Amino acid sequence: MKVIVVGCGRMGTGLALNLVKKGHQVTVIDMDPDAFDSLGKDFPGVKIAGVGFDRDILRQARIDRVDAVVASTSTDEANAVIARIARNVYRVPRVIARLYEPIKADIYHRLGIQTISTTTWGIDRATEMLTYNQLDSVYELGNGGVHLVRIEVPPLLVGHNVNEITALGEIHVVSVSRNDRTFIPTMGTILEAGDILYVSVMASSHDKLKSMLGIA
User: Fold this and answer.
1) 2-131: what fold?
2) Which of 19, 47, 86, 155 makes an SS bond possible with 24, Cβ 3.0 to 4.6 Å?
């Protein structure tokens, strides 16, 4: 995956390093060239000094070819501009904006932009939102007979109940992450677009889970 991270502060640095460790191609943009020192001498990604919402800088970062953009500068206003350019002008599939004032989150969500806040949680959450796949195994329990997998709710199941992806003794939805919060669902919880589910599944039941999710 190709990602642009705008802003090389604590969060931008942590996210960029997390992503390159996972094998992704990362370009970091910051106005201050000295900010790149925090990435370390061995950082394998691209570093570009410049204003994150300058279109010449974004073109230099090849924004038209990336899979995601994360706006993590020190101001909400700059992050909003960067996110909107990425989403509306370049049609980047995944856009995340750092927010210092969470009250603005609803506005961003209506624009189709995901948001993150506190630095430590934000690094982990942004990495999660960017790097999951259709059926991403995140943990094996015991001898590997049970897996904890992470998935985004497919369009097929939006509006349906959690119990439609439950099989007694085989498949169970452990938690749901939605709009910057995570909760334990009930069988009657209605699934929404953008929900990320953590599901415990027997190793022998992966095909059944894929069938429930409509994954080929």
Assistant:
1) Rossmann fold (3.40.50)
2) 19
